[in-house]
Amino acid sequence: MSKRNLPIGTRDEFGPLALKKVQLTNTLQQRFINAGFAPIKTPVLEYRAVFDAMAPTLENAYQFLEESGEPLVLRPDLTFPVARVMSTTGITPPTKWCYVGDVFRIKKRHSGGYNQITQAGVEISGVPGQKAEAECLLLAAGLCDDLGIDEVTLELSDASFVDAVLAQLPEVNRTSLKQALFAKNLTDYAKQLKQLPQTPLADFLAQWPWLFGDADAVLAKIPEVPALQQAVATLKQTVAFLKTNASQLQLTVDLSSPTPADATIGCYLAFNKPCNRQWAFPLMLTR
User: Fold this and answer.
1) pTM, 2 dp
2) Please, is 5 exposed, middle or buried when counting C-beta atoms within 10 Å of its C-beta (0-12, 13-18, 19+)?
3) Inter-residue contact 119 to 41 (CB < 8 Å)
């Protein structure tokens, strides 16, 4: 193959595109630092074990062997390395970190995606839940103001909700039902439902795969079951907080998809630039 060709999934960045990216990342970093987040940089190379919690998606990472035979990866994520720093350096919470760096994930051929992308984010550890959530969400809203973006959708989810629902069901069916829900395999999901004994949650379970969209509409569909209402109580408070303090945001909720293993509440900020290019920033709140 010609030395002039790039590996699939990579690209050169130069000219106006490179300048725009520098300006954007500088804006992000300055907002993070002004908000009290300390910059952190971790190596591009990490031991594979650092990312074991990402399995099976870890198989999409670039992997090879160290001289000693220990498996290494080009980092596919920036959250887990921050956790590794916390566990190996003796730094104790509370901590507030921010980062901008490249991550490497092998995309399917002809998918149109890049294998090397730039990720920006913040990590809050050891801070009371709702305080951390409020800070992180207001940070997201502030970034939109900095970038002059008007139409913004903030998607919220809660990692505890799925397990709260499954706890109401016979244990034998939980894993397979959860897998079908997250994979959006509606055929298998319907099959799993038919195998369940009679349950007061039958109507709710039938519509669970579609439990995403407008925040108020989704939260209104949660059954009046104490365990489920308790699972979304913080989420309801978060929605009310944002309506009061960041009314410019369009709020959606997704309670039918997984959130990252290291996040209790995850939010996904997406917005369109005037050129219609979509940018997205995940903000993960870790405890």
Assistant:
1) 0.76
2) exposed
3) no
Q: How many CA atoms lie within 13 A of 272 on its CB side?
A: 4
With the C-alpha atoms ordered 144, 150, 151, 154, is the resulting torsion angle positive or negative? positive
Pairing of strands 278-285, 116-125: parallel
| CA distance to 60, 163, 166, 182, 281, per residue, from 175 (Å) | 23, 10, 9, 11, 30
Residue pLDDT, tens place only, 32-83: 999 999 999 999 999 999 999 887 778 899 999 999 999 999 999 999 999 9
Largest CA distance in the chain: 64
Instruction: Please provide the distance, in angstroms rounded to a whole number, between the alpha carbons at the two ends of the chain.
Output: 48
Token duo for residue 227: 């365990």
SS3 233: helix
Rounded mean pLDDT, 268-281: 40
Length of the chain: 287
Tokens of 123: 């990590």
In 90-232, where does DSSP find H-type helix? Answer: 129-146, 159-166, 174-183, 186-194, 202-207, 215-219, 226-231
CB 126 within 8 A of CB 93: yes
User: Rounded CA gap, 103 and 76, in Å?
Assistant: 5
Half-sphere exposure of 145 (CA within 13 A, CB side): 11
Contact 212, 252 (CB under 8 A): yes
**Mean of per-residue pLDDT scores for the chain:** 85
Residues 162 and 153: their CA atoms lie apart, in Å, by 23
